[in-house]
Batch of 4 targets.
Target 1
Amino acid sequence: MQENVDALNDQKLKSLDTLHIPVWLAKDIAWILVYKPLGVAMILPAVFIAVYICIKTISEKLLFFQNLAILFWISANSTWMAGEFFDFSYKGPAMVLFLLGVISIARHYYLEVKLKPAELTKPYFARFFSKNQTTQKPY
């Protein structure tokens, strides 16, 4: 029974990660087209999904820091877009968020090099899900 729940959680996380991409793209397309309603409307789902994925992967530090970097990047990108749309000073706040993303991804790579080289042949997300399908609880 617990294995079924774990598999459903894995599938939900994969689905959200996949859903995340079109939400990002819709936001960025709206930004390019200067279509403020769609651009602003896509900020909340993009950030919410990124936060949710971070919360769900917090116990897997390597995956968490990768997702945290994505969250900071989406937040910085959204700040930049909103600053351009509504003419406010965005460079300082966006730069802080981008730098936090750089720190997060640096932490991700630092943790990743601690793994055996043979384990680094597949992307971490693939290693995470293949490992959890056989032995461990993902969350």
Note: Residues 1-5, 135-139 have pLDDT under 50 and may be disordered.
Target 2
Amino acid sequence: MFIAHLPAGYLLTRGIVRKRETIWRPALAVGLIFSLAPDLDLFYFYLVDGRRTPHHDYWTHAPLFWLAAAALTVLALSLAGKRQYLIFVGIAFANVLLHLFLNSIAADIRWLYPFSDIRFNLVEIPARYQPWYLNFILHLDLRSGDGDLRGGGVGLGE
């Protein structure tokens, strides 16, 4: 899913600012940065944590963290009289939410954390192959003839 975040961020940002050409470049920069922002935890995941904790369990994949950050930024900009920059907060928050939504298709996201540890995903891709990305390429069971997902299903992750 990682390679989907940048194009999705581009399309979302373009949709938001389509009639505001004067802010297109800075809006695109904000949109693309925040379309990837939740995955900045990958540096910690690989370099410090040694891949012991699923990176979707870090705070960068907690929607409440991003909501709080956006709310504090809106408050700070409003108090500073810089309301013209609020559009950028909206673009950033929208791109983070899009990132988390896209992750929720085939990966677990704890949308209600810290109030609940329930993990949400649309389909579950079983870890059967190495390297990890082959699981997303080879997850279709073509033996059934209908392309059903093997071992997955639709609903909540465990």
Note: Residues 143-158 have pLDDT under 50 and may be disordered.
Target 3
Amino acid sequence: MLTRLVEIREQVPWIASVCAGGMVLAHAGLLEGRRATTNRNCFHEFRSLVGTLIDARVVDDGDLITAGALTSGLDLGLHIVQRFLGRDAAEHASKGLEYPADEMWSDPTYIVGEARD
């Protein structure tokens, strides 16, 4: 599976993971030298597999976006919408999900990395 993940990564412009999915990317070698996050329960092992472990809900490192524990998946999804479709589209999606994203938009440590605005 890890070999196939590396092959797929070479064919796509970006990749994202949520929760312990970051561990899979790390074990495939895709996070070497990169800023990333994963489920906090995996931090001890994850730290040695990535460039910089960042304790945030979402870490955007350009063509690689990682998110923390499962509920961070909502933040990840909204961040991807914002990044590719704009803030208005992300706020509309947030309202449709009935997910209060106010903290996500205002706290600079919630999402770390590129494409915040």
Note: Strands lie at 15-17, 35-36, 52-53, 58-60, 64-67, 111-113.
Target 4
Amino acid sequence: MKTLVAGMVAVAVGGLGGCASPTVFEGKYAQDDGWRKGTVVEIGPANSLKRPSFYDCRAEASDAEGDKPYVMVAFLRNGHPYARAAKLPADAQLQVGDKVCVNFKDCNAPIPKRSSSTSDEKDFN
């Protein structure tokens, strides 16, 4: 009887583990690595962005970069709204309102636009 119960528990636990699959955006940006869907809400010099940012890459920038362009991206993490301020990549060509992928763990990560097939998924604006 104990063997039967232990076997059933092992099967149940194994089955639950198989149901959990990692969330990946655009086929390459894993949520476990810090990637989230977001929306560009502000672009401007680092020292003039108005929106508060919980994940702020400006703290890592030198004072000499105060006039460099930065981007503020709003996103959801665990269902709560957050924002990430990050240096605007030179080749990004982002505009306010663009749907992007943002990595809240890595200030040096790119900020790629999302494809149109995922642009209408729910995210924070």
Note: The two ends are 56 Å apart (CA to CA).
